[in-house]
Specification:
about 525 residues, about 15% strand, globular
Length: about 525
């Protein structure tokens, strides 16, 4: 393989080499003029897809085929398919309940099966690089962007489940990406909007944040994504994010830890970067300081400037040819490892078949966790009229896809099977005082049990106020259902609570069916510091 890589590298022009170290997104469900220009004129070697590019499996396969036909060297085509709240390939693809839910099953084989099914379905539509798993240690409940995207607050649990997920991804012939290096679970800001800080000493970082990365290198993780986070113990300047730090990306990741794969940045058009630098300026600095692939997801003008900037800096000596060649080698090796030079770029696999759906349902079923049951409400909740209170919009941070909920799946299933009336009230994720007052008024008049669905009430004060007023009003008749972060299950006054760890239709359906059938919830909270 090394001979083929060197032969390919020797045949490439400067522009073709630069194309291999950039990944871009575009708009539309067919190839746009912009993405065609980037591939044909600038030799773009890597593409990232979002929900904005995806309608259905047939359209997606056509799209990836069209993109590949434009390129001389096979493209890596990436997607953020984490499972749970970050799922780009939704039904009819098999959808999985996400990392923390998987860890709640206490069976690492479920992580392997998740990775394998995901990878097979991705390759069926020509996607070959999954920007997952998230290996952040979520030991700070106030973290707005990680939460259930993490397996646990324990590094060993994260490492075990992530390693099995990666094995599954590899067996499905897809490259994997561990993120967000060196770890942003212990941060209270969202890098999509501003630059977070993780202020831990090196000894703690080694013990907690870096542990999963060392373990994943043992199973051959293909790529690692640095975070737009400032680490005072690591970064050479104040407020310099890891993405731009030579100390982090070269000295630590490549030299000290010996990482031989692809170091791919997160989107350089996030607020954590663009509040101080343009995306294209950040791109060449990041590349010079250790990134192998720089990511520009949105703006065509900035994407073009990125190619031009890197070429300019190579020609004036600011970026060495040695550095450029090293990064291109890493990218080519990743592509060859997953067979992009060997044959068909899409592999015939079933999408959303019965066996895959059963695997996903089984994981969801085994993940659902009864966190508090002081009133024994779970067994009694279906024996009276029921009111379901739910958030009408689920996405809270930019990495999630905005999804309006007109009818909750929980409500639909319960209405179908309940012997008593089931009514519902939709409410904003950040309800106003008037909304809260109106809901409380309706609940006060309601003679029955309440199923209160939450997202992030532990950090969203408006939602927390609703929970606290509800459990004060009907403490023994309110079941809190955490559709997102399980910390909501332990809010003040909550006596009865269940964690779903995600709001996917699948997990909602499974939960409602289990409630109707009186099944026992067997999941175990994978947050060691929160177990009661």
């Amino acid at each position: 393989m090394k001979n083929l890589i060197e032969k390919t590298l020797d045949s490439m022009s400067l522009e073709e080499k630069i194309g291999q170290v950039v990944i871009c997104g575009f708009y539309g469900t067919t190839p746009s003029k912009e993405i065609e220009t980037l591939i044909r004129k600038y030799h773009l070697g890597n593409v990232i897809l979002f929900k904005r590019n995806i309608e259905n499996p047939e359209q997606l396969r056509e799209l990836t085929f069209s993109l590949q036909e434009m390129s001389k060297i096979p493209l890596s085509i990436a997607v953020d398919q984490e499972g749970g709240i970050v799922t780009r390939l939704t039904e009819p693809f098999t959808t999985f309940p996400g990392n923390m839910a998987t860890a709640a099953t206490q069976d690492v084989h479920n992580a392997y099966l998740t990775g394998l099914v995901m990878a097979k379905e991705m390759r069926a539509v020509g996607i070959n690089w999954d920007l997952a798993p998230v290996v952040d240690i979520n030991d700070l409940p106030q973290n707005p962007s990680i939460g259930v995207r993490s397996y646990s607050d324990d590094p060993e649990i994260v490492a075990r489940f992530a390693s099995e997920f990666v094995r599954g991804i590899h067996d499905g012939k897809v490259a994997a990406c561990a993120k967000h290096f060196p770890g942003k679970g212990h941060s209270a800001k969202d890098a999509h909007l501003e630059m977070p800080t993780v202020d831990r000493d090196m000894r703690t970082l080694e013990k907690i944040e870096l542990y999963p990365y060392r373990e994943l290198m043992k199973v051959g993780i293909d790529s690692i994504m640095p975070s737009h986070v400032y680490y005072p113990a690591l970064c050479e300047e104040k407020n310099l994010p890891a993405t731009l730090s030579k100390n982090v990306m070269i000295d630590l990741l490549k030299n000290k830890m010996g990482f031989k794969g692809v170091n791919v940045t997160d989107d350089l058009e996030m607020g954590g970067i663009t509040n101080s630098l343009s995306g294209s300026e950040a791109a060449w600095i990041s590349f010079k300081n250790g990134a192998d692939v720089v990511m520009m997801c949105h703006t065509f003008e900035e994407q073009v400037k990125t190619f031009e900037k890197i070429k300019e800096k190579v020609l004036d000596g600011s970026i060495s040819m040695e550095k450029l060649n090293d990064s291109v080698r890493r990218v080519l090796e990743m592509k060859m490892n997953i067979g992009l030079f060997d044959g068909p770029l899409a592999i015939e696999n079933e999408i959303g078949d019965e066996s895959s759906l059963e695997i996903a349902k089984d994981i969801a079923r085994k993940s659902i966790t009864l966190c508090k049951n002081e009133s024994g409400l779970v067994k009694k909740i279906m024996k009276k009229p029921l009111m379901v209170v739910f958030p009408t919009s689920m996405a809270l941070v930019k990495v999630e896809e905005s999804e309006k909920q007109k009818v909750l799946e929980i409500e639909r299933v319960l209405k179908k099977h309940s012997h008593f009336p089931v009514t519902s009230i939709g409410i904003s994720p950040k309800p106003t005082k008037n909304e809260i007052k109106e809901v409380i008024s309706k609940v006060r008049e309601f003679n029955g049990n309440v199923l209160l669905c939450t997202l992030n009430a532990h950090i969203v004060s408006e939602e927390r106020e609703l929970v606290e007023e509800m459990v004060l009003l009907k403490p023994d008749k309110t079941l809190v259902v955490a559709l997102r972060n399980p910390y909501d299950c332990f809010l003040k006054g909550v006596k009865n609570s269940v964690a779903l760890y995600n709001y996917s239709p699948l997990s909602q359906r499974v939960f409602a069916e289990m409630l109707v059938n009186g099944e026992k919830f067997t999941g175990k909270l994978p947050l060691l510091h929160w177990r009661t």
